[in-house]
Every structure is written in structure tokens, then in C-alpha cells.
Amino acid sequence: MGRKLAPGTRLVLASHNKGKLAELADLLRPYHVEIISAGELGLPEPDETAPDFAGNARIKALAATMATGLPAFSDDSGFCAAALSGQPGVLSARWAGPDKDFAKAMALVNERVGDLLDRRAWFVAALCLAWPDAHTETFVGRVDGTMVWPPRGNKGFGYDPMFVPEGGSVTFGEMEPEVKHAVSHRAKAFGQLMAACFG
Description:
The protein is α/β, with parallel strands linked by helices. It has a single domain (10-197), classed as Maf protein (Alpha-Beta Complex), CATH 3.90.950. Helices cover 32% and strands 22% of the residues. The chain is built from six helices and six strands. The protein has a six-stranded mixed sheet.
């Protein structure tokens, strides 16, 4: 049983990624919480030193809640290619470099996969909700699919334009936000979190 968040709660979104912030804000809107981002508060980005998505999500959420005294919500997510043994994985943002150039990151993934026939890929999202007493709850979602090249669409962010979810024909980058929100890795993790903390 998750610890509940009451309507009107002020919640820090522990991210500086504008695309991720917009998507999380859309997902949270029906729950009537007051959202403020770590960037708006001038919080630094903590070092993400965990070997997995869940660990890095906890690091970010705990850093934000300890700095503000407010509940904090974080996401750590990434793109994984089967032919690269799950890379870039937790290093997905780092593959984009300091300028967060995801066109470059996608090209690097495609280059490293090369002529390998295995085009299986998946996205993972870990969401963590943390409270000032250091209590945390973490939820993980995954969506499997296929890596495509060249990238298609400009509606998503990150690696979205090179990923077609299983059973689909369009990339996350081509999907309207409401369609992506219904099937994405983040939506799957979010559904678990909402059932636990708002249900």
C-alpha cells in the first residue's frame, strides 16, 4: 500500500529535462497536485551513480526532497538496444553529450548496431516518489519494440524517433502525446504509482 498524496500537495519534479517535465506534468494534471520543477527552484542535478534506473531515480528524488522539504517525484529512463547488450541504458542521456544532442546519440546507436540483424529494443522508466523523512516508493515500466533507421517524427524527445513499440507501425516520435501516454514505459510505471499513491 503506497503512501498517499493528497490533492493540492506541492510536489517537486526532480528533473531538468524539458521534454520529460512536460510529459510528467501532463500525466500528473488529473491528480490536482501543485507542480514545481527542480530547475525552477535552482536545484543542482545530483550525480547519477547507481547501476540501474531505479537507483538513479531514487538518488534524484531524495536529493530534491532533502533540499526542499517537499515530496519529490523523479524519473530515470533510457533506451536499450538488444544488439548492444542493453546499451545505452542508464547512460542514455550521456550518449547525447553535454549539449543533449539526441540526433547524435541516435546516430551513435545506429552506427554501433551496424549491420546486425537484431533490431529489438526497449525503453525502461523508473519513477520514484520520495518524502522528506527519506521514505521512497519506486515503480518500473518497460515497453518493448523495434529500433528503426532513419528516425521518424518530431513529437517526442530523446530516442523516441527511432523506436516503434511492439504491435505498432509508428515511432514514439510520430505519436500524438495522448497516444504515447497510453502505451509508453513511463505511462506503465506511472499507472502503478498512481494506483499506489492516489488510488
